[in-house]
């Protein structure tokens, strides 16, 4: 399934990420000692959720042959003291009726990344 490698040297906190044949850079903002050369880890997390959401909804609309012109997901990680949540707002362009829009929102609640985040998952760490 999915696999990524992350590496960091001595430059705070620029991180090189490789996944498949793609290369990304992650970093922290200046407020945390980084240089903001790429998205921060939580930005990458919500970006993955947003991407999975719009891809899944596009696939669903195509399968149903619904007239969806574009799907947008605004995803926001919110931390309030010890409480955390993700707020996701969908904007669907196209001539859909209310029932179709409601169905798209229902499908968004069951995308693969959404379900993974809602269920949680075991993380095993080993030293090489």
UniProtKB/TrEMBL annotation:
InterPro entries: KH_dom-like_a/b, OsmC/Ohr_fam, OsmC/Ohrsf
Highest taxon listed in the record's lineage: Bacteria
Pfam families assigned to the protein according to its UniProt record, in alphabetical order: OsmC
Protein name: Putative redox protein
Taxonomic lineage: Bacteria, Pseudomonadati, Pseudomonadota, Alphaproteobacteria, Hyphomicrobiales
């Amino acid at each position: 399934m999915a696999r990524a490698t992350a590496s960091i040297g001595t430059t705070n906190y620029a991180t090189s990420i490789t996944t498949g044949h793609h290369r990304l850079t992650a970093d922290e903002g200046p407020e945390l000692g980084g240089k903001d050369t790429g998205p921060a880890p939580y930005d990458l997390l919500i970006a993955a959720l947003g991407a999975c959401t719009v891809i899944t909804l596009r696939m669903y609309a195509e399968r149903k042959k619904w007239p969806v012109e574009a799907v947008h997901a605004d995803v926001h990680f919110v931390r309030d003291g010890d409480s955390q949540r993700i707020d996701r707002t969908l904007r669907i362009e196209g001539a859909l009726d209310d029932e179709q829009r409601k169905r798209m929102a229902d499908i968004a609640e069951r995308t693969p990344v959404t379900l993974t985040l809602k269920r949680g998952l075991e993380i095993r760490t080993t030293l090489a």
